[in-house]
Amino acid sequence: MAQRVVITGMGVMTSLGHDLETFWGNLLAGKSGISLIESFDVSEYTTRIASSIKDFNVEQYLDKKDARRMDRYVQLAVVASIHALENAKLNVAEDTDPERVGVYVGSGIGGLSTWEEQHKILLEKGPRRVSPFFIPMMIANMASGQISMHTGAKGPNSTAVTACATGTHSIGDSFKIIQRGDADVMICGGAEAPISPTGLAGFGALRAMSHRNDDPERASRPFDIDRDGFVMGEGAGILVLESLEHAQKRGATIYAEVIGYGMSADAYHMTDPSPGGEGAARCMVKAMKDAGISPQDVSYINAHGTSTGVGDKAETTAMKSALGEYAYKVAISSTKSMTGHLLGAAGGVEAVICGLTIQHGVIAPTINLDNPDPECDLDYVPNHARKADVNIAMSNSFGFGGHNATIILKKFEA
């Protein structure tokens, strides 16, 4: 018999807060975490804004020597995992069998800043001066590896690298690992630290980012006719998933239940969604089928909603295709309007948001939605938070390469 899977812990590291209370308060207040980039000279870049974490002191959480051997994305992942386990009141070594606790944390890009630093050393000082920690700091699986080392989790350990769908794939795959009985607990989600010269130049070359440098807080405007691209962000979002039996046995607080997971491929284009969001629609339908629900059961959708011209239209069409006429009745918001687009971490952070939405009965808004695009004509909860009894929440993530992922959470009922 398939195990029921519940969320017992959540942790974030974002520009809007390092703890759940601060993060959630800023979301409901409609606060933007986007600002001018200060970590390097951006004067020659067309985009000079991002959703940066400016007050992160890793030595508050980790030994200085250990922290220096981690890329920033790994640091963010490990610290968010510490927060999530504290939130779950779970000590892996003391409260459970470590061999039944797994880690599944991904990154869309991995250690970009480490790559830049070491490549500069290679060119300026030669190959003998490249750090022996270069490769293990940079590779995208190292967040999962370091979290397991820090926590002692010895169960299933893996990594998704599916661009902006990474965090949601990581959570969905973890859900299935517990559901089939291969673990009792999974620490899962995504982390990203792409705000670097190469990252900014690369996405800038794609002409996918906003140029609203003179008004950063209003730059990310999903579904608005005046949107001009996404705003890159850094951060991490981590969930602690447990089998219901394991959670109840230790008296854990349960935030929500994971009931569905869908995934699909566009098989269409490197960066653009398939026409009409066909692949995204199939993904949502698969998730609803897996959850055993109908469109009318969905209370809220946290949209991928990146603030790009083609992406927002495709997702709107996809939601209409997947949910039919009910798409006009469901509440939808893009919290990327406040957090920016955290790439591989987006799905992790947005799953946390869905869990908090179910717990508190309030939907965070889509800010900066002042002039809705006529082709984006659904209920995007514009500009102000909305009280609502959210029983079932859906979270969408779609990544370059045509990777699509959807998870569905439900208010817990014993």
Provide mean pLDDT, rounded: 97
Q: What's the number of helices?
A: 14
Tally the beta strands: 14
Radius of gyration: 20 Å
Percent in strands? 15-25%
Q: Give, in order, the helices and strands.
A: EHEEHHHEHHHEHEHEHEHEHEHHEEEE
Instruction: Give unreliable regions as ranges.
Output: none
The geometry reads as: globular
Helix share of residues? 25-40%
The secondary-structure class comes to alpha/beta
Q: N- to C-terminal separation?
A: 17 Å
Strand line-up in the sheet with most strands? 5-4-6-7-1-8-14-13-9-10
Largest sheet: 10 strands, mixed
Commentary on this structure:
With 414 residues, the chain is of the alpha/beta class. The chain has helices spanning 20-28, 64-68, 72-88, 92-95, 112-125, 134-138, 142-151, 166-179, 197-205, 244-249, 278-291, 309-323, 336-339, 346-360; strands at residues 5-13, 35-36, 49-50, 101-106, 157-158, 185-192, 235-243, 256-265, 300-302, 331-333, 362-363, 386-387, 392-399, 403-410. The strands form three sheets. It has a ten-stranded mixed sheet, sandwiched between helices. The protein has a two-stranded antiparallel ribbon with strand order 2-3. A hairpin with a 3-residue loop joins β13 (392-399) and β14. α11 crosses α12. It starts with a strand and ends with a strand.
What topology does this entry show?
Layout: E1 5-13, H1 20-28, E2 35-36, E3 49-50, H2 64-68, H3 72-88, H4 92-95, E4 101-106, H5 112-125, H6 134-138, H7 142-151, E5 157-158, H8 166-179, E6 185-192, H9 197-205, E7 235-243, H10 244-249, E8 256-265, H11 278-291, E9 300-302, H12 309-323, E10 331-333, H13 336-339, H14 346-360, E11 362-363, E12 386-387, E13 392-399, E14 403-410
Parallel strand pairs: 4-5, 4-6, 9-10, 9-13
Antiparallel strand pairs: 1-7, 1-8, 2-3, 6-7, 8-14, 11-12, 13-14
Helix pairs in contact: 3-7, 8-14, 11-12
